[in-house]
Write a structure and sequence with these properties.
- Belongs to the glutamine synthetase family.
- Strand 8 and strand 9 (218-226) form a beta hairpin.
- The chain folds into two domains: 11-120, Glutamine synthetase, N-terminal domain (Ubiquitin-like (UB roll)), CATH 3.10.20; 133-427, Glutamine synthetase/guanido kinase, catalytic domain (Creatine Kinase, Chain A, domain 2), CATH 3.30.590.10.
- The chain is of the alpha+beta class.
- The protein contains 14 helices and 14 strands.
């Protein structure tokens, strides 16, 4: 199911929303950086007109900071260019309320431009927009849906530095075992999950199913298909803000870390995608179960680009704790029909709903860059009429699976991204340099840090 076409975002439409919320004195303006962290400013409501005319001015380098908020010195945006400003212009769903805020407030996504009005190539939303335009030039429209997993934790987990599951809010039992799809656990967390659902509705986020997953305190929210990858990515970005904000309001902590507990399931960001032609026909549908040649071309392109795309799909050191053998996450560049052990799955469905599911990305990844990497791979396969290897059968996680291994460490993923030739044609040189610089800087900093487990293991014996 896809959302219906939405009206375009204009100053007049934003003013109408503002009129519906007379108590909201302030507006949060949000811009997504390369790590998927929302940055921006809080402005008074009477500054709305100026934001639509001039945009929100911020240094362009703000979108290219490392995970700790430090400048990435090799990104070409600080010392070489004088750290100039960009202008963040409203985009996405426009003004929406912030239901978890104690004081009435509105928020709005923005996308950064250069001051001359051209797209700022290091804005991850702009990177996705550029690839979507290439699909449109071929008369094709990607239809995208996502599934996001996350953990709810005890509210003091960040303060104490010790992540731990909360107790069941009603019965008080310990979350000490997986309770996948347990309806009783949905009932236990009804207050926070219903508030997440209500906040999604208030912000026009098309949430569908909410389910209990395999981890202790782990849940999943499914977002409906949208015939606009930019809006689909907006929805995923804003869902993460909803979960964290609502959880905090209920005395909990919500996290999208890929692997917050070493002995529990990781959290993924699974993406479903089909392609429509100008007449609205699904070009992956051949009337049967196999799908069209175009589907196989797309699969082949994604298989080919998976190694150099891993840094966008798994962008943090912790991401690779999820990508270990036996952890129910893909570690090979594989595809299959109705097989959840493959990286790319063709789900069982009616022919008109023929699509692929991309199962590699972690929930910690930037949704804009995830979709950009996936769609770049698909487009590469379509443009080159690439042919995929044979689909895997049986256990795609097995060591003897007939598929090439993927980078499964932060270091090898950074190297594969920097050395990649295909993704560079779609991301552009400026984005490749900026994202690579951010991740290499993070990797080198983490190499210098000695962990508690190293002290516990070695200090008393060596």
């Amino acid at each position: 199911m896809s959302q219906s076409v939405r009206p375009s975002l204009t100053l007049e439409s934003a003013r109408r929303v503002l009129d519906l919320h007379p108590q909201a004195a302030e507006i949060d303006l949000l811009a997504c950086d390369l790590n998927g962290i929302l940055r921006g400013k809080r402005i008074p409501r009477d500054a709305l007109d100026k934001i639509f005319s001039d945009g929100l001015k911020m240094p362009r380098s703000v979108l290219c900071l490392d995970i700790w908020g430090h400048d990435a010195h090799d990104n070409g945006l600080v010392w070489e260019s004088g750290d100039g400003d960009g202008a963040c212009k409203p985009c996405g769903e426009g003004l929406v309320p912030v239901p978890w805020s104690a004081r009435p407030r509105l928020q709005m996504l923005t996308m950064m431009q250069n001051l001359d009005g051209s797209p700022f190539a290091c804005d991850p939303r702009q990177a996705l927009a550029s690839i979507v335009r290439r699909f449109h030039a071929l008369g094709l429209t990607p239809v995208v849906a996502s599934e996001l997993e996350f953990y709810l934790m005890a509210g003091d987990s960040v303060e104490t530095g010790v992540p731990r599951p909360p107790k069941a809010p009603k019965s008080g039992y310990a979350l000490d075992a997986p309770r996948v799809y347990a309806l009783d656990e949905l009932d236990e967390f009804d207050a926070v999950l219903s508030a997440i659902r209500d906040a999604c509705a208030a912000q026009n986020l098309p949430s569908e199913a909410i389910s209990v997953e395999n981890g202790r305190g782990q849940f999943e929210v499914n977002l409906l298909h949208v015939a606009d990858p930019l809006i689909a990515a907006d929805h995923a970005v804003m869902l993460r803000r909803v979960v964290r904000g609502v959880a905090r309001a209920h005395g909990l902590h919500g996290t999208f870390m890929a692997k917050p507990y070493g002995d529990s399931a990781g959290s993924g960001l699974h993406v479903h995608c089909s392609l429509l032609d100008k007449d609205g026909r699904n070009v992956f549908d051949d009337g049967g179960e196999a799908g069209t040649d175009l589907l196989r071309h797309a699969i082949a392109g994604m298989i080919e680009t998976l190694p150099e795309s891993m840094l966008a799909l798994a962008p943090n050191l912790n991401s690779y704790r999820r990508l270990l053998p036996g952890q129910h996450a893909p570690v090979t560049a594989s595809w299959a029909y109705e097989n959840r052990t493959s990286a790319l799955r063709i789900p069982a469905s009616g022919p008109k709903a023929r699509r692929f599911e991309h199962r590699v990305a972690g929930a910690d990844a930037n949704p804009y860059l995830v979709l950009a990497a996936i769609l770049a791979g698909a487009l590469h396969g379509i443009e080159t009429k690439a042919q995929p290897p044979a689909p895997v059968s049986g256990n795609g996680y097995a060591d003897d699976a007939a598929a090439a291994p993927l980078p499964t460490t932060f270091e090898t993923a950074v190297a594969a991204f920097e050395q990649g030739k295909i993704l560079r044609k779609y991301f552009g040189e400026q984005m490749m340099r900026a994202f690579g610089a951010v991740k290499r800087q993070e990797m080198e900093e983490l190499r210098r840090r000695v962990t508690d487990v190293e002290y516990q293991t070695y200090l008393g014996f060596l």
